[in-house]
Backbone:
């Protein structure tokens, strides 16, 4: 049995490496926000467009992903996705303007279906007692990719500020953000090559009538005596289900017989992104600058976010098949909601005031502070009011380019409480709904509609996530940190109440056993 488990682990690990590429793509952009804003003179909504372009692209990709993976197979779809990641990374590095950068990142968004397809593939090759762990690998590689991106951004930022000949020779000081985005190129190429070594999903092969091919793949994953019963179980499940066109398969998701699976999928698909996780992960240095710790420290805090994400995702991996899916989700949402309420409260108590000493500190950073003299001694009770005053005094472009330094020298806040709240939220998310959502998606839908259902609910996730990413910069400058954190905390509270009522336990059950309990006759 150990040999079969190692084989399943190997195939799952290769596919889950796509999560690493996704993590890189998602987090590398966070370090470039200040640089591209200044270089291309971007507004809040344009910044949101650059960051959220992949989230917009994946919406379109998910509309056809189900058809592609059902018609061509899971492996072929994954190879297409890997190629798109590679092309997007190269295009982003070379983008000469705002429009081309958005286009390149949109292309990468077409590859963001890697998360849902990886969950589908791994769920279809994994033994029942390993499925939770193996599908969770997708989340682990994602957070490792996020962590690697934050660390790479931090190192590149430090290098760009170093007075060394090699920095100028490589153009790191002049093309800082391009070097950050270029980190993705080599891993994307490696993943594309590794995917050539995986087999097709045996469940897909059975559904296509390629039984000999399915037996060959299953022979690598399960003992010989289990192959025929497994094939028969898959065939019986498919035979009992309605057949038809792609449109009919989509319509099947909404029928009463799948009502339980539908509502569980819909609620958790909305709940995961509405927590605000992508606002923090995609804009991490910007978020930490709001606490007043400065740009360098903000990049370092982003690295810590990555480390916390990895630690608690590994913990989730160890617990998901022991404690079960339901306890992790409910506990994690409760913990995350309390954490964000604390952040909101801390920002509501903050004040912003420039002093003569802070003006001198700003002058030392080469900011022309003459326009700020009239504001010395004026206390602002919100970040929104303070930023508007800075825009009027310095001009919006200058104020936005130096926002981290301005906030750092004016804010009075319990920074430790905010940082602790954010880190606790990151930990709670990665212990619970982060990895568990994809595990549930791979389990709760019958085999005959899984190729359509998982991309459909991933589409819901991506649509909500897109709006979170697109409008966060605008929200930050118009609503303020207090209202944003309060909004996300309230969303978590509603999600917790709904999932407490709806969420089933699926640990240690085969896909067919789960189907029998969740699908009405």
Residues:
């Amino acid at each position: 049995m150990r040999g079969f488990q190692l084989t399943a682990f190997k195939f799952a690990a290769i596919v889950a490496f796509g999560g690493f590429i996704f993590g890189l793509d998602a987090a590398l952009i966070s370090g470039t926000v200040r640089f591209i804003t200044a270089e291309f003179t971007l507004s809040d909504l344009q910044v949101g467009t650059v960051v959220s372009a992949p989230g917009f692209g994946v919406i379109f990709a998910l509309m056809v992903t189900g058809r592609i993976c059902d018609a061509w197979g899971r492996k072929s779809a994954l190879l297409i996705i890997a190629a798109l990641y590679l092309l997007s990374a190269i295009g982003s590095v070379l983008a000469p303007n705002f429009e081309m950068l958005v286009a390149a990142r949109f292309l990468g968004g077409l590859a963001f279906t890697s998360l849902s397809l990886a969950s589908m593939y791994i769920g279809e090759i994994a033994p029942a007692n390993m499925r939770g762990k193996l599908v969770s690998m997708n989340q682990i590689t994602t957070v490792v990719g996020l962590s690697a991106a934050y660390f790479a951004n931090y190192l590149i930022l430090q290098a760009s500020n170093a007075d060394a000949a090699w920095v100028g020779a490589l153009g790191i000081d002049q093309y800082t953000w391009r070097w950050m985005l270029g980190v993705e190129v080599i891993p994307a190429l490696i993943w594309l090559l590794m995917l050539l070594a995986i087999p097709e999903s045996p469940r897909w092969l059975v559904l296509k009538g390629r039984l000999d091919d399915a037996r060959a793949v299953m022979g690598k994953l399960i003992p010989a005596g289990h192959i025929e019963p497994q094939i028969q179980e898959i065939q019986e499940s498919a035979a009992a289900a309605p057949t038809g066109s792609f449109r009919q398969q989509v319509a099947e998701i909404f029928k009463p017989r799948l009502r339980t699976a539908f509502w569980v999928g819909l609620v958790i698909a909305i709940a995961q992104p509405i927590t605000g996780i992508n606002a923090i992960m995609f804009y991490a240095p910007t978020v930490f600058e709001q606490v007043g710790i400065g740009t360098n420290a903000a990049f370092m805090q982003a690295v810590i976010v990555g480390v916390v994400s990895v630690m608690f995702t590994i913990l989730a991996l160890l617990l998901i098949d022991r404690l079960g899916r339901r306890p992790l989700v409910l506990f994690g949402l409760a913990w995350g909601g309390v954490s964000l309420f604390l952040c909101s409260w801390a920002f509501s108590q903050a004040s912003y005031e420039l002093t003569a000493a802070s003006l001198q500190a700003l002058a030392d950073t080469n900011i022309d502070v003459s326009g700020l003299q009239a504001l010395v001694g004026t206390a602002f009770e919100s970040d929104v009011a303070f930023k508007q005053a800075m825009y009027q005094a310095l001009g919006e472009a200058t104020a936005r380019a130096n926002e981290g330094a301005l906030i750092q020298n004016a804010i009075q806040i319990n920074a430790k409480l905010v940082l602790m709240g954010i880190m606790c939220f990151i930990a709670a998310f990665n212990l619970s709904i982060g990895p568990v959502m994809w595990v549930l998606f791979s389990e709760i839908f019958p085999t005959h509609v899984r190729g359509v259902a998982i991309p459909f609910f991933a589409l819901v996730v991506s649509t909500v996530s897109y709006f979170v990413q697109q409008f966060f910069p605008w929200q930050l400058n118009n609503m303020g940190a207090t209202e944003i954190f309060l909004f996300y905390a309230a969303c978590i509270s509603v999600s917790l109440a709904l999932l407490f009522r709806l969420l089933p336990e699926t640990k240690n059950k085969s896909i067919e056993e789960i189907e029998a309990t969740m699908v009405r006759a």
User: Anything to note?
Assistant: Residues 447-478 form the longest helix (32 residues). The two ends are 35 Å apart (CA to CA). The chain has a mean pLDDT of 84. Strands lie at 351-353, 379-380, 411-412.
